[in-house]
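Dissemination and training. As part of the outreach component of the grant, students in the summer workshop were shown how a complex can be specified as a set of sequence lines and then modelled as a single object. The example used during the hands-on session is reproduced here so that future cohorts can follow it. Participants entered these lines:
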Amino acid sequence: VLETDDDIRFGDFVAARWQALSRVAYLLTGDHGRAEDLLQTALVRAHRRWRHIDNPEHYVRRVLVNLNNSWWRRRRITEHLTAQVPEREAADPHTDYDVRDELWSAVLKLPPRMRAVLVLRYFEDLPEADVARILECSLGTVKSQTSRALDRLRADLTPNDRPEPARNA
Amino acid sequence: MTTQLENDLRATLAARAGQVPTSPDPYQSTHHRIVRSRRRRAAVSVVVAASLVIGVPTGLYALRPGAGNVSASDRSVLHWPIRGSLAGDRSFLTAAAERGQAESDKLEPPVRGTAHVLYAGDDGRHRAALVLVVGAKDTAGIVLSGPSKAPAGSLRVNSLLDGGLTSGRPIMSFDPVDKVLLVVGPPTMTEVEMSPALAFGPSGSPARVKRLIPADRGVVFADVPDGEAAQMWARGKVGGRFTESEQPSYSETPSEDAGPSDAAITSATRKAAGHIPEDLASELVQATAINLGVADSELTYRFWWGGPVGPNRFAIVATVSAPGIPTFRMVDTTVDQPKHPNFWQNYLLVTPVKGFAPPSPIGWTIDDKAAPRGDAVPPEDAVYAPGMQGDVVELLNHGIVIATAHLNGSGVATFPLNQTPAQLRSDQYQILDAHGTRTGDFALEDLDAIGQTITW
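and obtained this result:
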């Protein structure tokens, strides 16, 4: 499969960083299928420009966020025949409808860019300056987006806004 | 100071991220995508000993018609019970499983493994079966469909699915020949909301009509006579929540997957004024075809002009149409980031027009309202007015001129970037000729939401 030195370096990068990046992609999309599609699309883009990328991890993260923010992204994900289906865990918790966690549910309601700020800040634990670099925005924007996102989460989690618990028929 | 909410958020994100499964060989799947993007065939093979099992032991026939309550877990596709009126027809199930394996063996790379029939039904007019073939690394989904009473061997292969097949999401397939939608979800899926096709209003604005179809034990097998395969979107309702909407899979002809012809792109860009890089043109055509739900080969397009509209910004003006789709005039703006030359943002303006006549003046405003001020995508105002080179464009806000610029040699006027929204907030412009005579008033067109509508 590997052909050139660039391909080998790219393959090493994918092998080493796939898991971490797929987690970010999942947190950005909230959907395992879309996350895989998103990450693969980002990696294909990275591969095309591999020789010109100084910091692949930084680049792929930025493309992930950028693609996820844009409707422009190819969304028809069901026709390609190439994805490796990951090993399933016994309980198979990977269901996009099984949102048990209210906070996670609230996160999923956030606009993509705002969600990206939270993922980079609170999952990746990146300093605000790094988040700003990835999102190509100012430090102040990161702060304000974080604050607004947390406000929205708080509002969403107030008891009056909580949905009625599901009832069995 | 860290708040409890922030602590909870960290824990929640970490817990959710912890559910992301490992991938045994991520490079292989990525590489395949790369190869596909190059439109070359990959010589990759996966050899796995095949076996033939119809369904799985757990709850295999629990949902034969009239078999009673569902006991299988929603969370594992392979534990979903087999459903459909043919669930008890062992000879058909065996034939469908064998056909599924034969078809999955034709994939590249081939998928060889155990066949699980998840659905087999016949409504008196149509017949369909969904077979999952689970290999050591890959899973293939084969949807067979055709006329009622047809043997498994003669059914069409409507869909070859992948990626997240076993995740528990509803598996959706549309047969564009018989116009039949099959959605196989967990037994607790109660209904499917679907939009059969894009609709266009008198002005050409896209819209979607949605309808609900009740599920029978987690399955919808329904006629959708107005369904258009490439434009259809659907989602299932499971546990009171809708899943993420997605396009039901359908069989594609090779031409649909071939991508735009390089020669055609080259020819089209050479006919345009200015200069249009072929990779940008190709990406615009591919993305347009996908988002309008048509094949690249069905798309008729004409590039009018391409060139810079400011520092690190490049625009393409084109007219595009396809069968069943109104003719659109498009402005595609690409924003490059100076510090990161490989990063860009696309904005697309789509306006219905009557035909492929050369464009009259078109002005656009792009203000990424989702991005707070200070972000890397400042607002952009520009006007393309071929044949009016040298004329003056005045931006108006409530009748007051707020900015002026000359149309350059390509007939393009651009306005300074990095201004506050108020400074560039405009919805109209006028063009004055060399004598200062007003030649027309025009509306600035905003980045619209067509993409959101199209992709639901």
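Chain A touches chain B through 85 residues (CB under 8 Å). Students were then asked to discuss how this feature might be tested experimentally.
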